[in-house]
Amino acid sequence: MEVAGPAAAALNTLTPTQIQFLESVPKAELHAHLNGSIPLPTLQQLASEYLASSSGQGAISNEAIKQGIDVLSKGPKLDEIHDFFGLFPAIYALTSTPAALARATRAVLSAFLDGRPPQCNHLELRTTPKQTDAMDREKYLRTVLAELDRYEPGQVGLIVSLDRKMSEEVIKEIVDIAYALRKEGKRIIAVDLCGDPTAGDMTKFEPYFAQIKDAGLGLTVHIAETVHNTPEETLQLLSYRPNRLGHATFLNDEAISIVLDKKMCIEICLTSNLLCKTVSNLEVHHIGQYLKADHPIAICTDDILPFKTSLVAEYALLLAKPPYGLGLTEDQVKRVGEMSLDARFR
Ligand code: IMP
Ligand code: ZN
């Protein structure tokens, strides 16, 4: 995976020995979205096959797909977080059949797990089940899970994402499928709440999140991702007792004290926050307060495709000296890796 931007700048300041050290640190990737993590060559291949056979009459025009791939190839310029969500329709058109989704999943798993050395020792991949002309949501999940089965059970698990915009009917359908597949012994370990952080009313999720916890599944929610997320919404989401939190960038003091008290692990995605401009620089990033408190965190990539990063490159942002990184010691970096492994859903 090509690395660019702040993570590449951090890597460039490190010696080969330091990079080897980062590669050797035991760590887990706990926050990676499938359709945001497809290696660019795989996506380009899927696009050329799609364009060769498509009449352009689908939900998205061939021209829009070409443009989308072009933007992703160059590295998208994001002025704010909503620009980021606009990248997905083109990707979704390319992973809308079981065969294409399987290829994309295989490439994502390989990017995280097959390198020598691999990017991580453990992966929790997440994805939002979609209904398309070629598959229903159950088939979507079965297709992804079949690819996970190519790896050892302890190596990778699946988090099922619910989108903030989903109707209650779709939420119920997905949660029911997730339970049924888990009962069959499939590797569904948790549920995630994701999607446009400014959309949707969180109340509709309440009964489902309670059930999910009771059923022994993990719960992680993207929370307080933008300055527009209200303190009321944040406290509401915290009241559903999530085990882990994605981003948690804009927590007020009341929310922070709950998070610290309940030891909820924060999934930190440094490049994602910097490029989506929800955090202006590393010096003011909320990771600082959690490092000081030795509070559980996990360094994660979020979406390596648009953000052009890798897990090792995100760890470079910890080790590199300011202003390129946070200037942690090697022992501190090891501790962060350990915390990510401790926060796995089991
Ligand atoms: P998918 O669930 O495999 O389709 O992965 C892409 C989807 O993940 C996007 O359409 C978003 O809904 C979600 N996603 C990716 N990154 C973020 C994020 O930083 N915040 C909220 N949602 C995200
Ligand atoms: Zn995310």
Describe the structure.
The relative contact order is 0.17. The longest helix has 16 residues, at 98-113. This protein has a single domain (5-37, 120-342), classed as Alpha-Beta Barrel (TIM Barrel), CATH 3.20.20. By secondary structure, the protein is α/β, with parallel strands linked by helices. Strands 1-2-3-4-5-6-7-8 form an eight-stranded parallel sheet. It has helices at 5-12, 16-24, 40-53, 62-74, 81-85, 88-94, 98-113, 137-148, 168-183, 206-214, 231-239, 253-261, 270-275, 287-292, 304-307, 311-319, 330-342, and strands at residues 28-33, 122-127, 156-163, 188-194, 218-223, 244-247, 265-268, 297-299. Helix 1 packs across helix 16 (311-319) and helix 7 (98-113) runs parallel beside helix 8. It contains 17 helices and eight strands. It binds inosinic acid and zinc ion. The site of zinc ion has 6 residues, from strand 1.
* Uncertain residue segments: none
- Based on the coordinates given, report the CATH architecture: Alpha-Beta Barrel
Instruction: Determine the structural class based on helices, strands and strand pairing.
Output: alpha/beta
CATH superfamily: Metal-dependent hydrolases
Q: What overall geometry do the principal axes of the alpha carbons give? A: globular
CATH topology call:
TIM Barrel
The helix/strand order is HHEHHHHHEHEHEHEHEHEHHEHHH
Number of helices: 17
Number of spatially distinct domains: 1
So what's the CATH class? Alpha Beta
User: How is the main sheet built?
Assistant: 8 strands, parallel
What ligands are attached or bound here?
A: inosinic acid, zinc ion
Into which percentage range does the β-strand content fall? Answer: 5-15%
- Biggest sheet, spatial arrangement of strands: 1-2-3-4-5-6-7-8
Question: How much is the radius of gyration in Å?
Answer: 19 Å
Number of strands: 8
Distance linking N and C termini: 28 Å
Share of helical residues: 40-55%
Average predicted confidence as pLDDT: 96
Oligomer: single chain
Cofactor: Zn(2+)
GO molecular function, one term: adenosine deaminase activity
Keywords: Hydrolase, Metal-binding, Nucleotide metabolism, Zinc
Catalytic activity: N(6)-methyl-AMP + H2O + H(+) = IMP + methylamine
